[in-house]
Design goal:
The chain is of the alpha/beta class. The protein has one domain (about 10-300): Alpha/Beta hydrolase fold, catalytic domain (Rossmann fold). It contains nine helices and eight strands. An eight-stranded mixed beta sheet has the order 1-2-4-3-5-6-7-8, sandwiched between helices. A hairpin with a 4-residue loop joins strand 1 and strand 2 (about 50-60). Helix 5 (about 155-170) crosses helix 6.
């Protein structure tokens, strides 16, 4: 079956070129004390043999001397360029509003740039997919832009995330450690990488955010197969989806069936997990939809009921 989810490679692949030179949104309203700030760190990966930026959104008051001993929970998000910039998801702007509304506690957010944004990239679409996919996605119609790699390296992503990204953040910033204070999330293929990390490294993350995540990955849906074998699930899982993820009705129906299959797997393996399922009517597979749903996802992951 040909799975077509339009944004898709067109929008996401263009983000590195169109957004990298732009600055994250700077809040102009509300009290200055509620304004988060963005810093960057460069990470040279031995796992993927390239160098990329990590974008760190610090919560309000992080550098205030009175908070010098305070440590913060952390949310790791794949596709850092897309996540942090205003034409796409605009994490700084979203969090500014959440803080102004008093909706969440102070959180440190880490946007992890993908392989398509490194200086070593030769094809942004292919190199992003190469890092995020643990199995080929031959049915995904990206041939107009670049064929997906036949042997992607996404099985190495948990080693990159947990062995390289997280140690850098934990030694550089005041973050709380352990699953109760650590969440991972992603959009589209970035969600695949987040889910795979949770599956392969159980008891590492207490929160999982999946937005418009294609769960059919693998010729025999190996991603769902791996999920069935998972030893543990995070305490909170948020799954967001639009009703128009694909122009093809059969693909949209399959996406809902795959989501329900994952939900059943989680409920069976971890009955205590709190699941938040959002199906947005009329929403397609694009950053604008993910931006709209992000506030609710963050509130779900970082507030207790």
């Amino acid at each position: 079956m040909s799975h077509r989810v339009l944004v898709t490679a067109a929008v996401i692949a263009s983000l590195p070129a169109t957004l990298q030179g732009q600055q994250p949104s700077q809040a102009t309203s509300g009290a200055a004390s509620l304004s988060p700030t963005v810093e960057t760190q460069e990470l040279t990966s031995e796992v993927f043999e390239n160098t990329r930026s990590l974008r760190i959104l610090l919560p309000p008051g992080y550098h205030d001397p009175k908070n010098a001993e305070v440590k913060y929970p952390v949310l790791y998000l794949n596709d850092g360029v897309m996540a942090f910039h205003p034409p796409a998801i605009d994490v700084p702007g979203v969090f500014q509003k959440l803080y102004a509304d008093g909706a969440i506690p102070p959180i440190l957010v880490v946007g992890i740039d993908n392989g398509g944004t490194t200086d070593q990239t030769t094809n942004a679409v292919r190199d992003r997919a190469n890092e995020y996919l643990p199995y080929p996605d031959a049915g995904f119609d990206t041939l107009r832009y670049a064929p997906d790699p036949p042997n992607p390296e996404g099985r190495r992503y948990p080693d990159f995330l947990i062995g390289e990204v997280m140690p850098l953040i934990e030694r550089t910033y005041r973050v709380q450690t352990g699953p109760a204070h650590t969440a991972i999330g992603g959009f589209s293929y970035g969600g695949v990488a987040a889910l795979y990390a949770v599956i392969r490294r159980p008891w590492t993350f207490g929160g999982l955010l999946l937005e418009s995540t294609p769960l059919w990955i693998g010729p025999e849906k190996e991603l769902l197969r791996d999920a069935r074998a998972s030893a543990s699930w995070p305490a909170t899982v948020y799954v967001g989806l639009g009703t128009l993820e694909s122009p093809e009705e059969v693909t949209r129906a399959e996406g809902l069936l795959d989501r329900d299959a994952l939900v059943a797997i989680i409920r069976q393996g971890s009955p205590a997990t709190r699941l938040e399922l959002v199906l947005e009517d009329g929403a397609s597979h694009e950053p604008a939809a993910w931006r709209r749903r992000l506030p609710g996802a963050v509130v779900t992951l970082f507030t207790r009921r």
